[in-house]
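hey so u asked for the seq, here:
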Amino acid sequence: MKIHEEGKKIILSVLSFAVLTALIINIFHSTQTVWHIVGYVALLLLLLFILRFFRVPKRKTNVSPNKILSACDGKVVVIEEVYEKEFFKDKRILVSVFMSTNNVHINWFPISGRVSYVKYHPGKKLVAWHPKSSEKNERSTVVIKTENDKEVLMRQIAGAVACRIVCYPKEGDKAIQGEEMGFIKFGSRIDIFLPLNAKVNVNLKDRVKGKQTILAEL
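ran it, C-alpha cells below
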C-alpha cells in the first residue's frame, strides 16, 4: 500500500507513540494480563487506521474537457442552487461531497484549465456537513478557468476534526483533470460551484470516487 507524503510525519509520530507506550507498559507491568493485550491491540488498530487514512489509491482518469469529475471520495450531501459570494457573486449550482475519516482524503482537480484564483481562509471547526461550514470553517478556494472560458470553483473545507488543509496550486498554475491539488487531514468536505446550465449527474447520498465519478457536465 502506497502512503501519501502528507502522512509520513504523522505515521512516524504515531508509531513512536505506540512503541514507547508498549515499552512503558512492559517496564511497569511485567506480568501480562488481558488488559495488556487489549492495550497492544488498541495501539495496533490506531496505527493501522492512520496508515489506511493516508493511503494512495491506484486510479486512472479518462480526461474530458466538458465533464466535472469528483474532486474527492465521499458522499454527496448537497445539490442546490446557491448564491456564491466570494468570487462569482452570483447564483451557481453547488455540489458538496462529505469525506468521512474512512475515505481517501486526497483532493484532485475536477477539470483541466488554468488556476485563476486561490485564497485561504482561517476559520472555525464546525462539523463539515453543517450548512454554515462553507462560510465559517477553515477553507481554501480554488477557481479553474477552462479553455472554453468557463469557470469552476472548488472549495476545500475543514471539518470538526480536520487539523490541516493542504492546497498545492497557485494562481496561474496549470490544472490537469485528475491530478492532485491538495489534501485535507481528517474529516472534511469539498464544495464544487458550477454554472447554472451544468447538467448534474449525481444524486443526494450517492457515493462518489475522486477523479473517476462524473459529478456534472458543462
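The first strand starts at residue 67 and ends at 69. The first helix runs from residue 8 to 28.
lmk if thats what u needed
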